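JOB MANIFEST
job_type = single_chain_structure
chain_count = 1
residues = 167
[input]
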Amino acid sequence: MHHHIPAVVAISGVKNSGKTTFLEHLIPVLRETGLHVGVIKHDGHTFVPDVPETDSFRLRKSGAEAVAVVSSQRWMLIKEKPLPDMDFLLEQMEDMDLLLLEGFKDSQWPKIELVRNGVSQACVCPCHTLLAVATDITDLSVNVPKIPLDGYRQAAQLILESFHKKI
């Protein structure tokens, strides 16, 4: 069976560079174009997937290796095992047009890196993967477009242009 893999762009940067805030503002701009947008957030730690003392949390704690919570509007599946690979996760989101990754700075996916004064002074992502750098550092030297940290429309335009044939 053939799966549609959505276009993928990472919003990357060091810790506390503003990735979540950037995504919160970028997603509505992309949604205005009619795109179905999903997000995959990287967590460098072992995260708690649901709220302690909810039924699903209690069932996982009791030893269930998989717990699904289902309503008429949404569903969530938690499995207590490592992700087989990123392609598996991308396939689960095949109904999206675009997946935005939060983090994944060392990945080979195209990305917009946030370089925020006082948090970082240089790009940390592989240069050949950068679509743009969002920064407030005026003398930052990069070989890709520089946009402001609040340049959500410019970021959306760059993403749309880079995937024009795919989205």
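[summary]
The longest helix spans residues 19-31.
The longest strand covers residues 7-13.
exit_status = 0
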